[in-house]
């Protein structure tokens, strides 16, 4: 069975001066720093290709920040961006609010906090894993059809869907503390496959030196 890799790339920093939990809201674009991060990601994948990686398929969430993050990689590798709704950000009851901690003290929201293991304030973690892994499998197959043995795909998505997919891949519980996610801006979580069998997970941060100056809202 052919070996292959699917890279889950988180988008870059978003222009969000009001620190809104933007979720699936439209038109939240990358900041200047976010565009620099997107170029760093493109440089990372271009170097992989120069070193012999066969990156043959590129997918992005439909949200603006993911599409903009994918553009430099598409240009560097000469790939079309395929849009896939299945790797979109998670649904969240608190979407559109700023200063979410303050809103958590409002009794009107308490019913959404009743089960953090689900979580009750948004899309179930298990549902996110299911839809992302469907997209991963389709991208893996498409990459192998185009690139053959060792082919790679890149999927530009969002922190929470990527993180819970990694937790599932590593057979860890999906419930977690959002502050402890290892999925920084334009980080790359790589799922390694032998045929259809997931055999490993790797992680790297092409924009590590840019992170100290970045705004980063945990999201869903």
From TrEMBL:
InterPro entries listed in its UniProt record: His_Pase_superF_clade-1, His_PPase_superfam, PGM_Phosphatase
Superkingdom assignment: Bacteria
GO molecular function, one term: phosphatase activity
SUPFAM superfamilies: Phosphoglycerate mutase-like
One of the record's GO cellular component terms: cytoplasm
Pfam families: His_Phos_1
Protein name stated in the entry: Broad specificity phosphatase PhoE
Native species: Crystallibacter crystallopoietes
């Amino acid at each position: 069975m052919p070996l292959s890799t699917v890279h889950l790339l988180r988008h870059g920093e978003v222009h969000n001066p009001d620190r809104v939990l933007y979720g699936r809201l439209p038109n939240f674009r990358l900041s200047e720093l976010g565009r620099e991060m997107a170029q760093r990601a493109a440089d990372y994948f271009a170097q992989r290709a120069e070193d012999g990686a066969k990156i043959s398929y590129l997918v992005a969430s439909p949200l603006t920040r993911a599409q903009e993050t994918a553009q430099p990689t598409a240009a560097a590798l000469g790939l079309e961006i395929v849009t896939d709704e299945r790797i979109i950000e998670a649904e969240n009851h608190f979407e559109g609010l700023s200063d979410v901690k303050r809103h958590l003290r409002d009794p009107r929201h308490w019913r959404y906090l009743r089960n953090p293991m689900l979580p009750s304030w948004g899309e179930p973690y298990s549902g996110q894993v299911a839809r992302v892994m469907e997209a991963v499998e389709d991208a893996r197959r498409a990459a192998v059809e185009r690139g053959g043995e060792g082919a790679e795909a890149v999927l530009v998505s969002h922190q929470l869907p990527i993180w819970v997919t990694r937790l599932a891949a590593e057979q860890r519980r999906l419930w977690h503390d959002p502050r402890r996610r290892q999925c920084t801006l334009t980080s790359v979580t790589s799922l390694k496959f032998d045929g259809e069998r997931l055999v490993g997970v790797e992680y790297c941060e092409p924009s590590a030196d840019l992170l100290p100056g970045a705004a980063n809202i945990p999201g869903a």
